Amino acid sequence: MDRAELTTGQVLKRDIPWEAYMTTKLISGTDLQLLRRYDNRAESVRAQLLDDDGPVYVQVFVRILRDIFKEETVEYVLALIDEMLTANPKRARLFHDNSLANEDTYEPFLS
């Protein structure tokens, strides 16, 4: 299948080596814990995590997009964000949270 034809669901079926990224210090141990809590969970579980700690998850996603360049991983995180915003467009405000004031949350999307 052509990569341009992949759906969000197909991308999210990938197995991303989060542990390997932590071993190589591309993500932190905290990032790994958050990803394990969020990744491959039911929408209701993800929704609760985002309601409780949404800005923290946005920060992890943005950091991955900024620091990891492997195409499959970038597509995966973009699919997570797409799914998050599709389920509830009001979650876009998570990218504007005061706790992210020192982060350029848009930079990874523009490069």
In short:
This protein is an all-alpha fold and 111 residues long. It is built from six helices and no strands. The protein has one domain.
Structural features, described:
There is one protein chain. The chain has helices spanning 8-11, 18-23, 29-38, 43-67, 71-87, 107-110. The protein is an all-alpha fold and 111 residues long. The protein has one domain. The two termini are 26 Å apart.
Biggest sheet overview: none
Measured by DSSP, the beta-strand proportion falls in under 5%
Round the mean pLDDT to the nearest integer and report it. 92
As for the number of domains, it is 1
Number of helices: 6
Radius of gyration over alpha carbons? 13 Å
The helix/strand series, from N terminus to C terminus, equals: HHHHHH
Shape: globular
Query: Helical amount among residues, as a percent range?
Result: 55-70%
Distance N terminus to C terminus?
Answer: 26 Å
Low-confidence stretches: none
Oligomer: single chain
Which short descriptors sum up this protein?
mainly alpha; single chain; 111 residues; 59% helix
Element layout with pairings:
Layout: H1 8-11, H2 18-23, H3 29-38, H4 43-67, H5 71-87, H6 107-110
Helix pairs in contact: 3-4, 4-5
